[in-house]
Amino acid sequence: MVHIPPPLEIHDLTVSYDRKPVLYGVDVVVEAGSLVGVVGPNGAGKSTLIKTIMGIVQPNGGWVKIFGQPYRKAVTRVGYVPQRESVDWDFPVSVMDVVLMGRYGHAGLMRRVSKRDRRIASECLEKVNMQPFSDRQIGNLSGGQQQRVFLARALAQESDLYLMDEPFAGVDAATETAIVELLRDLKERGKTLIVVHHDLSSAREYFDKLMLLNMRLVAYGEMEETFTPDLLQKTYGGRLTILSDVAGQAAGRSEFEEEGNPKL
Amino acid sequence: MKVPRISPVFVLLVFFAFPALVHATRIGDVTDLDWSEQTFRFLSLRDAAVRNAVLGSVFMGVSCGLFGGYVVARRLALFGDTLSHAVLPGVALGFLWSRTKDPVAIFVGATVAGLLGTVVVAWIRKTTRVKEDSALGLVLSGFYAVGICILTVIQEMEFGNQSGIDKFLFGQAAALSSADVSLMGAVAIGTLMMVTLFNKELLVTSFDEGFARSVGIPVEFMRYVLLVGLTFAVVTSLQAVGVVLVSALLITPAATAYLLTDRMGTLLLLSALFGVAGGLLGSYGSFLGNNLPTGPFMVLACTSFFVVAFFCGPKHGLISKWLRRRNRVRQVSFENTMKAAYQVLEAGDFSKESVTVGALAARRRTSVAEARREADDLVKAGFASMLGSDDDGPRYSQDARLSLTPAGWERACQIVRNHRLWELYLTNEARYAADHVHEDAEKIEHVLGEKVVRHLERILKDPRRDPHGSVIPSLEDIERGAGLSTNPASATGYFRQN
Amino acid sequence: MREEFFPTFDYGSVFVDPWWSGFESTFQVVLMGFFVCLACGVIGNFVVARRLALVGDAISHSLLPGIAIAFVFTSSRSLPAMLIGAAVAGVLTTVLIELIHRKSRVKPDAAIGIVFTTLFAVGVVIISIWLDNVHLDADCVLYGEIGLVPLRESFILGGANLGPLPIATMGAVALLDILLVIVFYRVLLVTSFDAGLARSLGMPVNTTHYGLMIALALTIVAAFEAVGVVLVVAMLIFPAVTAGFFFERLPALLFGVAPLSLAYSLGGFHLAKWLDCSIAGAMVVTAGALFVVAWFFGPKGGLVYRSRALGFLFTASKQKISPQIVG
Disulfide-capable partner of C228 in A217, A239, B21, C143 (CB 3.0 to 4.6 Å)? Predict the structure, then answer.
C-alpha cells in the first residue's frame, strides 16, 4: 500500500516571542479530510500555531510538515485566511483584486491574470454572495463582508489544506452561517480545514474534531472524545499554571542552551 | 607645520573615529591654536560666548533630557522628529517679523508653528484614512519646505546676510546670546518644576491612559502640558543643535537611560545628565574645531554614551548579558556532570563513595578526556574533589576517581529530584506519555526553584518514584547534605517513611 | 537686495520670461523636478502602503555619510561611488536599527531616531570639515540645488547629448523604478497588502522588502542633489496620499503620480520664480497646497464630502456605505 503523507504533521514544536514561550512541545498529526477547530483561552498560542505552520513565525524547536514536505515545497497546497485585523483595509485594492491575489500562486508571478483566473475568482465571490460588491474598495465593506472576501480568496487558491485564523470573529449571523456551510462544503470535497475558533459553545456544532490548545497541546481528536468536561477544564482551567510558568523560564533559556551546550 | 595631536574628543568619539581624526588634522592645519589652549579657554569660561554656550548646553540638556524620557517611554520618538522640523517656518517668520534674531519673536513663531504642526497631524489622522507615519511625514516635510522657502527668501533680503539665521539648521552654540540663554534657562526651570509637580500624573498617563482617566487624572490636560512643554524644549534648543538634529537630543539620552534603569525617576535623572553631558561635549567639540556646527557634535557625543550603555550597561548591556548567559551555560554543564555522578552512584546502589571518570564518561556519552575536563571544572568550582593525586596514573586515566563534596551532593540531589518530579508531573497531571517527558525534564530541571518544587510535591502528594520507577531523592537527603553514606536507606528517601 | 517678502506679481516675468528667454535651462529644471517626483512618487506609493514613510525619512538622512565619504574619496560627484556609498549607508542603517531594537529594549521608533540622527551627524561633520569649500554645501544637503542642474556637465551617449548628467541619471532611475514596479507589480502588491498570503503563495517577502529599500535608496541618491534629504521625503509621501483622495485602486494611484509630478514641478518652478526662493522648497509647498485641496475637495474621503453640514449638496453622488464593523 502506498503511504500517503498526512496534510499536516507537527513534531515537538516550540515557539516563543521575546523569550516568552507561546507554544511548547506540540505534537500532532491531522488526517486528510478533517474539519478541525482549534480552541483554547486567550494567549494560548492558537494564532501562533497557524502562523508557524505558515512559516510566518520561526519555531525555536521542532518541525512542521505539510503533505510530508517542508512548508516551502508544499506552499501552493495551503490556503490561508488571516485574522481580519491583520491587514490594512484602507489599502487601495478592490474586492476583485483581493480575490485575484488568491490566483497568483497558480498564475505564476510574471504571467498575466488569465480569463480563467477571473472566472474562478468571480465564481468564488458568487459562492460567498459577494459578487455584487466586486468593484468596491475593501474598506467600504462590513466586517462580515470583509471576512467573506477573505474566504473567497482562500477558495480561489484551490488548496488542499486550509488554515483559518478566527474567521468567525466579529461577523454577523448571516455570514457565520455562510461560513459554516462553506466549511462543510470544502470538507465534503476532501479538503482539510484547520480553523482557529474563540467560542467554545459553537465549536461543538461547527467542527468534527477539536484541538485543545493552551501553550501545550492538551488534546486532539474526534469531538466526542475531546469535548469532555475534564479536558476542557484542563485547557481553560488554571491547573497547569506551573507548567506555563516553568516552561516560560525554560523556553527563555532554550536559546542559549542550543548554542552553548549542545550536549544537553 | 604642527603635528596634529589627538584631541580628547577622539577618545569620546571612539566609535566615530573617522570624523574625529579628520577633526584633529583640521585644528592642526587651520587654526594656530593648540587644542589644550582651546580647552583651557573653554574650561575657564573667559569668553562670554563660551559661557553662553556652556550654560545653554546645560539648560538644553535638562529640558530635552527630561522631556525625552517621556518621549521614549510613550514611543513618541518620531513625533518629536516631526515637531522639530515643523517649527522651521515659525523660526523663519519670527525672524522675518522682527527683522533681527530676536529670541522672543522666534520663540513665539516657532511655538505656534510647532503646535500648528501637531494639530494638523491630529486633524489628518482624525478626518482621513492616512496612516500615522504618513501623516507625520506630510507635516514634517510640508512645514519644513515652507520654512526653507521663507529662509531662502530671507537670505536674499538685506537684513538676511548678517542674520545667522542659517545657524538654525545645524546649530551653533557659540552664537547664543544672553537673551537666548535666559530663555533656555526659563524653559529648563519650567520643565523641572513641571516634572516635580506632575510627577505621578505624568507617570500614570504615560503608562496607561485608560487607568489614568479612571483615577481622575485630567489626561487631556496632561497631554497638552507635555506637548506644549516639549515644543518649548525643542524651540529653545534649536539654536544649539539645529532643526534637523534636535530630535536626537530628545531620543538618544533618554534611550541611553532606558538601557540603564527600570525606574522612571532614575530614567529622567539619567536622561537629563546624559543630555547635559552630551550638550557640553558637543559644544566643546565644535569649539575645538573652530566653531563647526554644534548639533552634529552633540549628537555624536550622545550616541557615544548610548553605544557604551548598549554594550556595557550592567543590566541590559550586551556584554553583561553575554557574561550572564555564559555563566548559566557553565552552571548547566556543572549540574549535568553532577547529575551523572549521582546516577552512577545510584546505579551502584550508593555502595561506593566515588565514581570513576570512565563511568562518568559512559554516562554522559562523551570521551574520557571530555569527562575528565568536566570533572576538573567541578573540582575547581568546589563541587567535587579528585581522590588520590594525579601522580597515581596518567592524566586522563579513566580510573581516576571523583567524589562529590557536600555542596556538590546537595546540588546533584536537587537536580535529580527536579528532573524526576517534573517527569512525574507531566505524566500524572499533564497526561504526557511516559516516554515523552525526559527531554522536557532535561531542560526544566535546571530552572525549577525550591518554591515550585514544594508546590509540585504537594500536588503530587510527596511522591517517591518517578514514572520510570526511579527513586526521587527527598528533601531530607538534600538538606542533610548526607551524601556518601554507604547505607542506601539513609541516602535516599526510599525508606524514609518507615 | 530686496525689501518686500512678496514681490509684486508680474505674470510676464513669472510665467512667460523663463520659457521665452531661457527655455533650455527652464525646461531642464522642470524636467529634473518632474523626474524626481515621478521616481519618488512611484516608489513612495509602496512606501506609504507599507507604512514605511518615516523609515524612508530615516534612510534619506542616513545616506548622507555614504555620499559624503564617496565624495571625499573621489573628490567629485562620481555617480558610481555615490551609489556604492549610499548603498553601504543604507544597509548599515537597516542593520543598525535591527541590531538596536533586537538586542536591547529600545523600541523601534527610538532605534530609528538614534540611528538616523547619528549617521546624519557623521555626514554633516564630514561635509563641514572636508567638503565645505568643494561643491557640497551643508545647507544644500537640506534643500538641494535644483536650479544649478542645467550648469552641470552634459551626459554624452554615442555622440548624442542627453542633457546634463543629473537629469539623465534621474530619468534613468525613474524609468528603472517604473519598470521594476511593472515587472514586480504583483509581488509588491501582495506583500504590501498581506504578507501572510504572500508567504503562502511562495513569494519572497523579505527579498521584496530589501529590494524595495534598495530601490528607495537609489532613488534618494539620484534625487538628493536636486531636492536634499528632507524634501525628498515629501516627494515620497505627497503623491500617494494626494492621489488617495481621488482613486481607490493602486494602479490608479500609480498613474496619478505622473500628472501630480508635472504639477509639482511646474508649480514649484514658477512659485520659486515669483518669490525667488528655493525651487525644491517651492515644489513641496505646491505639493502641500495640492494635498490640502485634495484633503478638502477630494471625492474619496475629502472633508467636504464627509462633512454633514455640506453633505446635502452631494447626497446624490454619495452613497452611504455600510458600517465598518458589525458586532
Answer: C143
